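Long-time lurker, finally posting.

We've been working with Dihydrolipoyl dehydrogenase (Marinihelvus fidelis) and I want a structural starting point before designing mutants. I don't trust myself to interpret raw outputs, so I'm hoping someone here can both generate the C-alpha coordinates and explain anything notable. Sequence follows.
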Amino acid sequence: MSDKFDVIVIGGGPGGYVAAIRCAQLGLKTACVEKYSDKDGKLALGGTCLNVGCVPSKALLDTSKHYHHVQHDYAEHGITTGDVAIDVPKMIERKAGVVKKLTGGVAMLFKSNKIESFHGTGKLLAGRKVEVTPADGGDAVTLEAKNVILASGSVPIAIPNVEFDGEHIVDNVGALEFDETPGKLGVIGAGVIGLELGSVWKRLGSEVVLLEALPDFLAAADTDIAKQAARAFKKQGLDIRLGTLVKKAEVKKGQVEVTVEDKDGESKLSFDKLLVAVGRRAYTDGLLADDSGVKLTDRGQIEVNENSQTSAEGVWAIGDCVRGPMLAHKASEEGIAVAELIAGKPAHIHFDTVPWVIYTDPEIAWVGKTEQQLKDEGIDYKVGTFPFAATGRALAAGSPDGMVKMLADAETDEVLGVHIIGAQASELIAECVVTMEFHGASEDLARIVHAHPTLSEAVHEAALHVDRRAIHRAN
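Top reply, 14 upvotes:
Generated this for you. Predicted structure of Dihydrolipoyl dehydrogenase:
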Protein backbone atom coordinates (compact mmCIF):
# COMPACT_ATOMS: atom_id res chain seq x y z
CA MET A 1 0.00 0.00 0.00
CA SER A 2 1.12 3.53 -0.76
CA ASP A 3 0.92 6.47 1.64
CA LYS A 4 0.86 9.26 -0.99
CA PHE A 5 -2.14 9.94 -3.20
CA ASP A 6 -3.68 12.50 -5.50
CA VAL A 7 -6.94 12.24 -3.56
CA ILE A 8 -7.94 10.78 -0.22
CA VAL A 9 -11.64 10.48 0.53
CA ILE A 10 -12.72 10.18 4.16
CA GLY A 11 -16.03 8.36 4.14
CA GLY A 12 -17.28 5.60 1.87
CA GLY A 13 -20.95 6.52 1.67
CA PRO A 14 -22.88 7.58 -1.45
CA GLY A 15 -20.91 10.83 -1.56
CA GLY A 16 -17.51 9.42 -0.73
CA TYR A 17 -17.46 6.19 -2.73
CA VAL A 18 -18.87 7.91 -5.82
CA ALA A 19 -16.27 10.69 -5.52
CA ALA A 20 -13.51 8.09 -5.19
CA ILE A 21 -14.66 6.18 -8.28
CA ARG A 22 -14.93 9.34 -10.39
CA CYS A 23 -11.48 10.50 -9.23
CA ALA A 24 -10.02 7.15 -10.25
CA GLN A 25 -11.79 7.31 -13.62
CA LEU A 26 -10.11 10.66 -14.18
CA GLY A 27 -6.68 9.13 -13.65
CA LEU A 28 -6.14 10.31 -10.08
CA LYS A 29 -4.44 7.98 -7.60
CA THR A 30 -7.18 7.59 -5.01
CA ALA A 31 -7.70 6.17 -1.52
CA CYS A 32 -10.84 5.92 0.57
CA VAL A 33 -11.04 5.62 4.35
CA GLU A 34 -14.20 4.06 5.78
CA LYS A 35 -14.79 2.82 9.32
CA TYR A 36 -18.09 0.98 8.90
CA SER A 37 -17.95 -2.78 9.51
CA ASP A 38 -20.45 -5.48 8.65
CA LYS A 39 -21.56 -8.10 11.17
CA ASP A 40 -18.42 -10.12 10.45
CA GLY A 41 -16.18 -7.15 11.22
CA LYS A 42 -15.21 -6.64 7.58
CA LEU A 43 -15.17 -3.34 5.71
CA ALA A 44 -18.62 -2.45 4.36
CA LEU A 45 -18.61 0.40 1.86
CA GLY A 46 -21.76 2.36 1.03
CA GLY A 47 -22.17 4.29 4.27
CA THR A 48 -25.49 4.76 6.04
CA CYS A 49 -27.42 4.69 2.76
CA LEU A 50 -26.47 1.21 1.60
CA ASN A 51 -25.96 -0.40 5.00
CA VAL A 52 -28.59 0.97 7.37
CA GLY A 53 -30.55 3.65 5.52
CA CYS A 54 -32.02 4.13 2.06
CA VAL A 55 -31.54 0.64 0.66
CA PRO A 56 -32.51 -1.62 3.58
CA SER A 57 -35.53 0.52 4.41
CA LYS A 58 -36.76 0.19 0.82
CA ALA A 59 -36.29 -3.58 1.00
CA LEU A 60 -38.54 -3.71 4.06
CA LEU A 61 -41.03 -1.29 2.51
CA ASP A 62 -41.37 -3.53 -0.54
CA THR A 63 -41.78 -6.70 1.53
CA SER A 64 -44.38 -5.12 3.78
CA LYS A 65 -46.20 -3.71 0.75
CA HIS A 66 -46.48 -7.18 -0.81
CA TYR A 67 -47.82 -8.55 2.47
CA HIS A 68 -50.37 -5.76 2.75
CA HIS A 69 -51.55 -6.22 -0.84
CA VAL A 70 -52.06 -9.95 -0.37
CA GLN A 71 -54.14 -9.29 2.72
CA HIS A 72 -56.22 -6.34 1.55
CA ASP A 73 -56.07 -5.74 -2.20
CA TYR A 74 -55.80 -8.97 -4.16
CA ALA A 75 -59.44 -10.03 -3.65
CA GLU A 76 -60.55 -7.03 -5.72
CA HIS A 77 -58.44 -8.39 -8.58
CA GLY A 78 -60.15 -11.78 -8.28
CA ILE A 79 -57.15 -13.37 -6.57
CA THR A 80 -58.11 -15.58 -3.64
CA THR A 81 -55.52 -16.54 -1.04
CA GLY A 82 -55.58 -18.58 2.13
CA ASP A 83 -54.10 -17.63 5.45
CA VAL A 84 -51.18 -15.26 5.03
CA ALA A 85 -48.31 -14.93 7.49
CA ILE A 86 -45.18 -12.83 7.67
CA ASP A 87 -41.84 -14.40 8.61
CA VAL A 88 -40.07 -11.36 10.06
CA PRO A 89 -36.62 -13.01 10.45
CA LYS A 90 -36.82 -14.13 6.81
CA MET A 91 -37.71 -10.59 5.77
CA ILE A 92 -34.71 -9.25 7.70
CA GLU A 93 -32.51 -11.92 6.12
CA ARG A 94 -33.63 -10.88 2.63
CA LYS A 95 -32.93 -7.24 3.46
CA ALA A 96 -29.43 -8.18 4.61
CA GLY A 97 -28.87 -10.05 1.35
CA VAL A 98 -29.80 -7.01 -0.71
CA VAL A 99 -27.41 -4.87 1.32
CA LYS A 100 -24.57 -7.38 0.98
CA LYS A 101 -24.93 -7.53 -2.80
CA LEU A 102 -24.76 -3.77 -3.14
CA THR A 103 -21.90 -3.18 -0.71
CA GLY A 104 -20.03 -6.04 -2.33
CA GLY A 105 -20.64 -4.40 -5.69
CA VAL A 106 -19.04 -1.18 -4.49
CA ALA A 107 -16.02 -3.14 -3.25
CA MET A 108 -15.66 -4.70 -6.71
CA LEU A 109 -15.86 -1.26 -8.33
CA PHE A 110 -13.08 -0.05 -6.03
CA LYS A 111 -10.94 -2.99 -7.04
CA SER A 112 -11.55 -2.53 -10.77
CA ASN A 113 -10.75 1.19 -10.47
CA LYS A 114 -7.61 0.50 -8.41
CA ILE A 115 -8.82 2.50 -5.41
CA GLU A 116 -7.03 1.68 -2.16
CA SER A 117 -9.38 1.08 0.77
CA PHE A 118 -8.44 1.71 4.37
CA HIS A 119 -10.74 0.17 6.99
CA GLY A 120 -10.66 2.55 9.90
CA THR A 121 -11.30 6.07 11.15
CA GLY A 122 -9.78 8.99 9.27
CA LYS A 123 -8.71 12.29 10.82
CA LEU A 124 -7.61 15.28 8.76
CA LEU A 125 -4.31 16.77 9.92
CA ALA A 126 -2.56 19.94 8.73
CA GLY A 127 -1.10 19.93 5.23
CA ARG A 128 -3.64 17.49 3.75
CA LYS A 129 -2.38 14.57 5.80
CA VAL A 130 -4.82 11.95 7.00
CA GLU A 131 -4.30 9.83 10.09
CA VAL A 132 -6.00 6.45 9.80
CA THR A 133 -6.75 4.45 12.94
CA PRO A 134 -7.44 0.87 11.79
CA ALA A 135 -10.76 -0.69 12.74
CA ASP A 136 -8.95 -3.78 14.01
CA GLY A 137 -7.10 -1.76 16.64
CA GLY A 138 -3.72 -1.75 14.90
CA ASP A 139 -1.26 1.10 14.82
CA ALA A 140 -2.33 4.32 13.15
CA VAL A 141 -0.84 5.24 9.77
CA THR A 142 -0.52 8.64 8.15
CA LEU A 143 -1.38 9.22 4.50
CA GLU A 144 -0.71 12.28 2.34
CA ALA A 145 -2.62 13.71 -0.59
CA LYS A 146 -2.74 16.66 -2.93
CA ASN A 147 -6.49 16.82 -2.25
CA VAL A 148 -8.72 15.50 0.52
CA ILE A 149 -12.49 15.07 0.22
CA LEU A 150 -14.41 14.97 3.50
CA ALA A 151 -17.54 12.85 3.20
CA SER A 152 -18.18 11.87 6.80
CA GLY A 153 -21.97 11.83 6.53
CA SER A 154 -24.47 12.24 9.34
CA VAL A 155 -25.84 10.45 12.41
CA PRO A 156 -29.29 10.35 14.03
CA ILE A 157 -30.14 13.19 16.37
CA ALA A 158 -30.75 12.20 19.98
CA ILE A 159 -33.20 14.11 22.15
CA PRO A 160 -32.98 14.92 25.86
CA ASN A 161 -34.30 12.35 28.34
CA VAL A 162 -34.70 9.69 25.65
CA GLU A 163 -31.71 7.36 25.70
CA PHE A 164 -31.15 4.72 23.04
CA ASP A 165 -30.75 1.22 24.47
CA GLY A 166 -30.74 -0.62 21.12
CA GLU A 167 -33.61 -2.88 22.16
CA HIS A 168 -36.61 -0.91 23.34
CA ILE A 169 -35.60 2.63 22.35
CA VAL A 170 -33.94 2.63 18.94
CA ASP A 171 -32.85 4.78 16.03
CA ASN A 172 -33.44 3.92 12.38
CA VAL A 173 -30.80 1.17 12.54
CA GLY A 174 -32.62 -0.62 15.34
CA ALA A 175 -35.97 -0.30 13.58
CA LEU A 176 -34.48 -2.19 10.61
CA GLU A 177 -33.57 -5.15 12.80
CA PHE A 178 -36.67 -6.03 14.85
CA ASP A 179 -36.97 -9.82 15.03
CA GLU A 180 -40.74 -9.67 15.45
CA THR A 181 -43.53 -7.22 14.78
CA PRO A 182 -44.02 -4.89 17.77
CA GLY A 183 -47.53 -4.89 19.20
CA LYS A 184 -47.39 -1.14 19.63
CA LEU A 185 -44.71 1.06 18.08
CA GLY A 186 -44.13 4.67 19.03
CA VAL A 187 -42.29 6.93 16.59
CA ILE A 188 -40.90 10.31 17.60
CA GLY A 189 -40.98 12.38 14.42
CA ALA A 190 -43.37 12.24 11.48
CA GLY A 191 -40.77 13.04 8.84
CA VAL A 192 -39.33 10.85 6.10
CA ILE A 193 -37.76 8.17 8.32
CA GLY A 194 -40.65 8.06 10.75
CA LEU A 195 -43.26 7.72 8.01
CA GLU A 196 -41.35 5.10 6.04
CA LEU A 197 -40.44 2.83 8.96
CA GLY A 198 -43.78 3.48 10.62
CA SER A 199 -45.45 2.31 7.40
CA VAL A 200 -43.36 -0.88 7.34
CA TRP A 201 -44.41 -2.04 10.78
CA LYS A 202 -48.00 -0.82 10.44
CA ARG A 203 -48.45 -3.01 7.37
CA LEU A 204 -47.03 -5.95 9.30
CA GLY A 205 -49.53 -5.53 12.12
CA SER A 206 -48.18 -2.97 14.58
CA GLU A 207 -50.30 -0.26 16.11
CA VAL A 208 -48.21 2.78 15.15
CA VAL A 209 -48.36 6.20 16.81
CA LEU A 210 -46.25 9.03 15.40
CA LEU A 211 -45.49 11.88 17.79
CA GLU A 212 -44.63 15.10 15.94
CA ALA A 213 -43.68 18.26 17.83
CA LEU A 214 -44.43 20.59 14.91
CA PRO A 215 -48.01 21.80 14.40
CA ASP A 216 -47.96 21.19 10.63
CA PHE A 217 -47.66 17.85 8.87
CA LEU A 218 -44.82 17.53 6.31
CA ALA A 219 -44.04 21.22 6.54
CA ALA A 220 -41.36 20.96 3.83
CA ALA A 221 -43.84 19.63 1.27
CA ASP A 222 -46.43 21.58 -0.70
CA THR A 223 -49.53 22.12 1.42
CA ASP A 224 -51.91 20.41 -1.01
CA ILE A 225 -49.68 17.34 -1.17
CA ALA A 226 -49.29 17.25 2.61
CA LYS A 227 -53.07 17.36 3.06
CA GLN A 228 -53.60 14.44 0.69
CA ALA A 229 -50.81 12.50 2.40
CA ALA A 230 -52.33 13.08 5.84
CA ARG A 231 -55.68 11.72 4.63
CA ALA A 232 -54.04 8.68 3.03
CA PHE A 233 -52.00 7.80 6.10
CA LYS A 234 -54.99 8.26 8.42
CA LYS A 235 -56.97 5.87 6.20
CA GLN A 236 -54.12 3.36 6.52
CA GLY A 237 -54.35 3.55 10.31
CA LEU A 238 -51.24 5.56 11.10
CA ASP A 239 -52.00 7.61 14.22
CA ILE A 240 -50.18 10.92 13.60
CA ARG A 241 -50.32 13.34 16.53
CA LEU A 242 -49.14 16.85 15.69
CA GLY A 243 -48.08 19.43 18.23
CA THR A 244 -46.99 16.67 20.59
CA LEU A 245 -43.71 17.15 22.41
CA VAL A 246 -41.94 14.17 23.96
CA LYS A 247 -40.62 15.11 27.40
CA LYS A 248 -38.97 11.82 28.35
CA ALA A 249 -39.01 8.07 27.81
CA GLU A 250 -38.23 5.29 30.28
CA VAL A 251 -38.15 1.51 29.97
CA LYS A 252 -40.21 -0.13 32.70
CA LYS A 253 -40.87 -3.87 32.84
CA GLY A 254 -40.16 -4.30 29.14
CA GLN A 255 -42.38 -1.41 28.09
CA VAL A 256 -41.40 2.10 27.01
CA GLU A 257 -43.25 4.71 29.02
CA VAL A 258 -43.31 8.04 27.17
CA THR A 259 -44.29 11.35 28.71
CA VAL A 260 -45.73 13.76 26.16
CA GLU A 261 -47.08 17.27 26.25
CA ASP A 262 -49.73 18.64 23.89
CA LYS A 263 -52.45 21.30 23.98
CA ASP A 264 -54.22 19.31 26.71
CA GLY A 265 -51.16 19.13 28.97
CA GLU A 266 -48.95 16.20 29.97
CA SER A 267 -49.88 12.54 29.61
CA LYS A 268 -48.19 9.15 29.42
CA LEU A 269 -48.17 6.60 26.60
CA SER A 270 -46.85 3.04 26.60
CA PHE A 271 -45.16 1.21 23.70
CA ASP A 272 -43.40 -2.07 23.06
CA LYS A 273 -40.78 -0.25 20.99
CA LEU A 274 -39.93 3.42 20.51
CA LEU A 275 -38.23 4.73 17.35
CA VAL A 276 -36.53 8.11 17.56
CA ALA A 277 -36.61 9.69 14.10
CA VAL A 278 -36.29 13.44 14.62
CA GLY A 279 -33.64 14.02 11.97
CA ARG A 280 -29.91 13.76 11.47
CA ARG A 281 -26.89 15.95 12.16
CA ALA A 282 -23.55 16.32 10.41
CA TYR A 283 -21.01 13.82 11.74
CA THR A 284 -17.64 15.45 12.33
CA ASP A 285 -16.66 13.87 15.67
CA GLY A 286 -12.92 13.18 15.62
CA LEU A 287 -12.70 14.13 11.95
CA LEU A 288 -10.63 17.31 12.20
CA ALA A 289 -7.39 17.99 14.02
CA ASP A 290 -7.18 21.42 15.65
CA ASP A 291 -4.69 22.57 13.02
CA SER A 292 -6.51 21.10 10.00
CA GLY A 293 -7.58 24.56 8.87
CA VAL A 294 -11.18 23.47 8.24
CA LYS A 295 -13.94 25.59 9.79
CA LEU A 296 -17.33 24.48 11.05
CA THR A 297 -20.57 26.45 10.88
CA ASP A 298 -22.73 27.31 13.88
CA ARG A 299 -24.77 24.19 13.06
CA GLY A 300 -21.72 21.94 13.25
CA GLN A 301 -21.50 21.43 9.50
CA ILE A 302 -18.28 21.80 7.53
CA GLU A 303 -18.10 25.27 6.00
CA VAL A 304 -17.76 25.21 2.20
CA ASN A 305 -18.17 27.60 -0.71
CA GLU A 306 -20.33 27.09 -3.80
CA ASN A 307 -17.75 24.65 -5.21
CA SER A 308 -17.61 22.53 -2.02
CA GLN A 309 -14.18 23.88 -1.07
CA THR A 310 -13.42 24.25 2.64
CA SER A 311 -11.32 26.96 4.30
CA ALA A 312 -8.23 24.73 3.98
CA GLU A 313 -6.43 24.64 0.64
CA GLY A 314 -6.97 21.41 -1.26
CA VAL A 315 -9.64 20.17 1.16
CA TRP A 316 -13.21 19.66 -0.04
CA ALA A 317 -16.39 18.48 1.69
CA ILE A 318 -19.59 16.92 0.37
CA GLY A 319 -22.80 15.22 1.42
CA ASP A 320 -24.57 15.30 4.76
CA CYS A 321 -21.67 16.99 6.56
CA VAL A 322 -22.15 20.24 4.57
CA ARG A 323 -25.02 22.60 3.69
CA GLY A 324 -27.94 21.52 1.59
CA PRO A 325 -30.40 18.64 1.81
CA MET A 326 -29.26 15.41 3.48
CA LEU A 327 -29.98 13.19 0.48
CA ALA A 328 -27.85 10.39 -0.92
CA HIS A 329 -28.26 11.50 -4.52
CA LYS A 330 -27.26 15.06 -3.64
CA ALA A 331 -24.09 13.71 -2.00
CA SER A 332 -23.26 11.57 -5.04
CA GLU A 333 -23.60 14.44 -7.48
CA GLU A 334 -21.48 16.67 -5.23
CA GLY A 335 -18.85 13.93 -5.20
CA ILE A 336 -18.76 13.77 -8.98
CA ALA A 337 -18.59 17.56 -9.26
CA VAL A 338 -15.68 17.79 -6.81
CA ALA A 339 -13.78 15.00 -8.55
CA GLU A 340 -14.11 16.83 -11.86
CA LEU A 341 -13.08 20.16 -10.35
CA ILE A 342 -9.98 18.52 -8.86
CA ALA A 343 -9.15 17.15 -12.32
CA GLY A 344 -9.43 20.64 -13.81
CA LYS A 345 -12.78 20.10 -15.50
CA PRO A 346 -15.88 22.30 -15.29
CA ALA A 347 -18.54 21.04 -12.90
CA HIS A 348 -21.58 22.24 -11.02
CA ILE A 349 -24.60 21.11 -9.06
CA HIS A 350 -27.94 22.91 -8.93
CA PHE A 351 -29.54 22.59 -5.52
CA ASP A 352 -32.77 24.04 -6.90
CA THR A 353 -33.34 20.89 -8.95
CA VAL A 354 -32.55 18.23 -6.35
CA PRO A 355 -35.61 15.96 -6.04
CA TRP A 356 -37.05 14.84 -2.72
CA VAL A 357 -38.83 11.51 -2.25
CA ILE A 358 -40.74 9.80 0.57
CA TYR A 359 -41.22 6.10 -0.20
CA THR A 360 -44.54 5.60 1.53
CA ASP A 361 -47.64 4.28 -0.23
CA PRO A 362 -48.63 6.49 -1.95
CA GLU A 363 -45.16 7.82 -2.67
CA ILE A 364 -44.44 11.53 -2.36
CA ALA A 365 -41.93 13.38 -4.54
CA TRP A 366 -41.18 16.98 -5.37
CA VAL A 367 -38.67 19.30 -6.96
CA GLY A 368 -38.38 23.08 -6.84
CA LYS A 369 -40.58 25.60 -5.05
CA THR A 370 -43.81 24.97 -3.18
CA GLU A 371 -46.81 27.21 -3.75
CA GLN A 372 -46.34 28.77 -0.31
CA GLN A 373 -42.71 29.61 -1.08
CA LEU A 374 -43.73 31.34 -4.31
CA LYS A 375 -46.34 33.37 -2.42
CA ASP A 376 -43.82 34.32 0.26
CA GLU A 377 -41.30 35.39 -2.39
CA GLY A 378 -43.86 37.44 -4.30
CA ILE A 379 -43.49 35.43 -7.52
CA ASP A 380 -46.47 35.39 -9.87
CA TYR A 381 -47.27 31.84 -10.89
CA LYS A 382 -49.78 29.56 -12.57
CA VAL A 383 -50.95 26.17 -11.22
CA GLY A 384 -51.90 23.00 -13.02
CA THR A 385 -53.13 19.85 -11.28
CA PHE A 386 -54.31 16.42 -12.31
CA PRO A 387 -55.61 13.49 -10.23
CA PHE A 388 -54.27 9.96 -10.68
CA ALA A 389 -57.86 8.72 -10.52
CA ALA A 390 -58.43 10.20 -14.00
CA THR A 391 -55.68 8.08 -15.62
CA GLY A 392 -56.45 4.66 -17.04
CA ARG A 393 -53.18 3.11 -15.85
CA ALA A 394 -53.67 4.15 -12.22
CA LEU A 395 -57.21 2.80 -12.17
CA ALA A 396 -56.21 -0.46 -13.84
CA ALA A 397 -53.39 -0.91 -11.33
CA GLY A 398 -55.65 -0.21 -8.36
CA SER A 399 -53.66 2.92 -7.45
CA PRO A 400 -56.06 5.83 -7.97
CA ASP A 401 -54.94 7.91 -5.00
CA GLY A 402 -52.80 10.97 -5.65
CA MET A 403 -52.23 13.95 -7.89
CA VAL A 404 -49.63 15.95 -9.80
CA LYS A 405 -49.32 19.66 -9.10
CA MET A 406 -47.25 21.86 -11.39
CA LEU A 407 -46.21 25.46 -10.73
CA ALA A 408 -45.00 27.70 -13.57
CA ASP A 409 -43.95 31.33 -13.85
CA ALA A 410 -46.97 33.45 -14.82
CA GLU A 411 -45.03 35.40 -17.44
CA THR A 412 -42.34 33.06 -18.82
CA ASP A 413 -44.10 29.72 -18.15
CA GLU A 414 -40.83 28.28 -16.79
CA VAL A 415 -41.54 25.35 -14.46
CA LEU A 416 -40.78 26.44 -10.88
CA GLY A 417 -41.87 23.34 -8.99
CA VAL A 418 -43.62 20.00 -9.39
CA HIS A 419 -45.22 18.08 -6.54
CA ILE A 420 -46.50 14.51 -6.83
CA ILE A 421 -48.27 12.13 -4.49
CA GLY A 422 -49.16 8.75 -5.92
CA ALA A 423 -47.85 5.49 -7.28
CA GLN A 424 -44.30 5.65 -8.69
CA ALA A 425 -43.92 9.34 -7.78
CA SER A 426 -40.21 8.65 -7.24
CA GLU A 427 -39.86 7.73 -10.91
CA LEU A 428 -42.25 10.32 -12.35
CA ILE A 429 -40.38 13.23 -10.76
CA ALA A 430 -37.31 12.62 -12.96
CA GLU A 431 -39.02 14.02 -16.06
CA CYS A 432 -39.81 17.17 -14.13
CA VAL A 433 -36.23 17.48 -12.83
CA VAL A 434 -34.90 17.33 -16.39
CA THR A 435 -37.38 19.97 -17.51
CA MET A 436 -36.37 22.32 -14.71
CA GLU A 437 -32.64 21.69 -15.20
CA PHE A 438 -33.00 22.93 -18.78
CA HIS A 439 -35.25 25.83 -17.71
CA GLY A 440 -38.14 24.24 -19.54
CA ALA A 441 -41.71 25.50 -19.57
CA SER A 442 -44.97 23.75 -18.75
CA GLU A 443 -45.67 24.10 -22.48
CA ASP A 444 -42.69 21.82 -23.17
CA LEU A 445 -44.15 19.06 -21.01
CA ALA A 446 -47.60 19.69 -22.48
CA ARG A 447 -46.30 19.25 -26.05
CA ILE A 448 -44.31 16.05 -25.41
CA VAL A 449 -46.08 12.81 -26.40
CA HIS A 450 -46.53 10.57 -23.37
CA ALA A 451 -47.23 6.87 -23.85
CA HIS A 452 -50.75 5.68 -23.14
CA PRO A 453 -51.78 4.25 -20.77
CA THR A 454 -49.10 5.34 -18.26
CA LEU A 455 -48.91 7.11 -14.94
CA SER A 456 -46.78 9.76 -16.64
CA GLU A 457 -49.90 11.01 -18.38
CA ALA A 458 -50.78 12.67 -15.07
CA VAL A 459 -47.68 14.86 -15.47
CA HIS A 460 -48.69 15.61 -19.06
CA GLU A 461 -52.23 16.58 -18.10
CA ALA A 462 -51.05 18.72 -15.17
CA ALA A 463 -48.85 20.62 -17.62
CA LEU A 464 -51.82 21.09 -19.92
CA HIS A 465 -53.93 22.24 -17.01
CA VAL A 466 -51.49 25.09 -16.26
CA ASP A 467 -53.16 26.87 -19.23
CA ARG A 468 -56.55 25.26 -18.56
CA ARG A 469 -56.49 22.91 -21.52
CA ALA A 470 -56.29 19.52 -19.84
CA ILE A 471 -58.25 16.94 -21.81
CA HIS A 472 -59.35 14.48 -19.16
CA ARG A 473 -60.59 16.84 -16.44
CA ALA A 474 -62.81 19.87 -16.14
CA ASN A 475 -60.76 23.04 -16.52
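Before you design anything, note these points.
Residues 88-112 form the longest helix (25 residues).
The mean pLDDT is 97.
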